[in-house]
Design goal:
Strand content: under 5%
Number of domains: 3
CATH superfamily of the largest domain: MFS general substrate transporter like domains
Number of strands: 3
CATH architecture of the largest domain: Up-down Bundle
Largest sheet: 3 strands, antiparallel
Main location: membrane
GO molecular function: transmembrane transporter activity
Structural class: mainly alpha
Number of helices: 18
Subcellular location: Cell membrane
CATH class of the largest domain: Mainly Alpha
Distance between the termini: 43 Å
Membrane topology: Multi-pass membrane protein
Keywords: Cell membrane, Membrane, Transmembrane, Transmembrane helix
């Protein structure tokens, strides 16, 4: 009953039950059945359901349980009670908790790198052009190989791919740091090492999002994704600050070495993940067929097609325009760099709030919530077109960041709940590629467009274009009919059946992404 694979979705409760006398051995396990949840008390190898009205006050706790009288259940049935806030429920699942901290380690290291890498390359070469080439060598492979990473994440254990990616990045960044320490870093070596790093990241991302769906029941996935985005927002703020301190007291090489060490920590934590079984493996087919199968899953769902297109235009019409023309307006009309720094910081703080809202609020019509929130995003461009006072633009930038983070978190949880697990990583890879493919084009052309038709017209035109596209997506019937729940997938049904086995099996219970990307990096 309490084996490694027999209770994959309720492991924390079952682990707690094994450590207590038989009389108290009543652990709550969650089985995803149909569109809701069924709570099952495990007592001496038997199972009996708990009434739905008693489910809410009985929740996970990662290391133990608090005996507390539940208002709708007998005291002896409340060993697993509400000891932590609902918003952090996923952290009570040991596998998710280790996945969360693994991603935190690697995210924090990666947020230290942009500042440190720039000074490291300039220290060796003294050339801004060389810095641009090194940065490009890291980002291009991420776009080129993300689909390949999605295919292999659906073929092999996702945990294995993530550990391998961390190992590769540990080696590449470690060698890079050693070369900077030695003050002997040939240009070709820096380009190759960053290309290897970018390729490994392309494999990590689809696997991370797919693994999150394996370690959490669907009822907790939106909270889990929201917590990941909240953590990513914190590292996005803390990373550059840490890099600044390191550069002030040491050399860029130490910052790169810390980034390498973060991947070692991440890999160690990921080895402690025991994800739920993915169901019987299908017959292996060619790489091209696997790629085509993922593409068919995308184009066969109108909501996927329309919203990926929407996010691509968001990158092209809003993000590119904001990051290129925002500094221009700040310099010409708002007093210079201070105004832009305030706006940029406001975006980061807003992203943290948006991800926290996604943790707490679970809309029944998630695509309506995504589209409705994105309708607010052009406000900051219209404010720049006026231009509005700095304090007003700071508020609009805060709203802009909150909308991006909220929409990202809700969208990812929708994909995890409505896309079959066997193709989830490939679909996420297509989403990432489709959402970001227009970004470099927008960054390249927006300056020329603004010089031709003026900055104000460009800002207003981009806002109107995106509002029209979003309203069209909201007008689709599927946007209003797609619910936050989805039919149980076959592999989840098998896991639910395991939860009510009557023969106990005592074995070790071990456990550790989505990798949630930095703001604006993956999609919206």
């Amino acid at each position: 009953m309490f084996g490694r694979r027999s209770t994959p979705l309720g492991r924390p409760g079952c682990s707690w039950a094994r450590k207590h006398p038989p009389r108290q051995c009543r652990s709550l396990c969650i089985a995803a059945t149909g569109s809701g949840s069924t709570a099952v008390w495990m007592t001496k190898g038997t199972a009996r359901p708990v009434r739905q009205d008693t489910l809410r006050p009985i929740i996970f706790h990662g290391t133990g349980a608090v005996r507390r009288r539940c208002p709708t259940a007998r005291r002896e049935e409340c060993l697993m009670s509400a000891s932590i806030r609902e918003s952090v429920l996923p952290l009570g699942v040991r596998d998710y908790r280790n996945l969360f901290f693994a991603n935190m380690a690697s995210f924090l290291g990666d947020q230290v790198v942009p500042v440190a890498l720039a000074f490291a390359v300039l220290q060796v070469t003294g050339s801004a052009s060389a810095l641009g080439i090194v940065l490009l060598s890291r980002t291009v492979p991420m776009a080129l190989f993300v689909l390949t990473g999605g295919v292999w994440a659906d073929r092999l254990p996702r945990q294995l791919i993530m550990v391998g990616s961390d190992a590769v990045r540990f080696v590449s960044q470690g060698i890079f740091a050693a070369l900077i320490f030695a003050n002997h870093a040939p240009m070709w070596a820096m380009v190759v090492l960053q290309a290897v790093h970018g390729t490994a990241t392309a494999f990590y991302r689809p696997a991370s999002s797919g693994l999150l769906a394996q370690v959490l029941p669907r009822e907790l996935r939106q909270r889990g994704v929201g917590l990941m985005y909240s953590m990513a927002g914190l590292t996005h703020v803390a990373g550059p600050a840490i890099a600044g301190v390191l550069l002030a007291v040491t050399s860029p090489a130490w910052a790169l070495a810390i980034d390498a060490a973060s991947f070692a920590v991440s890999a160690f934590l990921l080895t402690r993940v025991s994800p739920a079984e993915r169901g019987p493996a299908k017959e292996r087919q060619s790489f091209v067929r696997d790629l085509a199968e993922g593409w068919n899953e995308v184009i066969s769902r109108s909501w996927l097609r329309s919203w990926i297109l929407n996010f691509a235009l968001f990158q092209f019409a809003l993000l590119a325009v904001f990051w290129v023309l925002g500094p221009v307006v700040a310099k010409t009309s708002l007093g210079g760099g201070t105004a832009w720094a305030i706006m940029s910081a406001s975006v980061g703080m807003g992203s943290l709030l948006g991800s926290l809202v996604a943790v707490r609020w679970h809309p029944k019509r998630p695509l309506v919530a995504v589209g409705g929130s994105l309708l607010l995003s052009p406000a900051v461009l219209l404010g720049l077109a006026a231009p509005a006072p700095v304090y007003a633009l700071a508020g609009m930038s805060f709203l802009f960041g909150a909308v991006i983070a909220f929409a990202d978190a809700i969208w990812e949880s929708v994909m995890q709940n409505h896309v079959p697990e066997r193709v989830l990583s490939r679909v996420i890879a297509y989403d990432y590629l489709g959402s970001t493919v227009l970004r470099p084009i927008g960054l390249a052309v927006v300056g020329s467009v603004a010089a031709t038709i003026t900055t104000q017209v460009t800002l207003v035109g981009a806002s109107v274009l995106y509002l029209a596209v979003t309203l069209a997506a909201l007008a689709m019937p599927i946007t209003w009919t797609l619910s936050s729940h989805a039919p149980l997938q076959p592999e989840e049904a098998m896991a639910s059946a395991d939860l009510v086995e009557t023969q106990p099996h005592v074995g070790p219970v071990s456990g550790t992404s989505h990798a949630a990307p930095a703001l604006g990096e993956r999609g919206r």
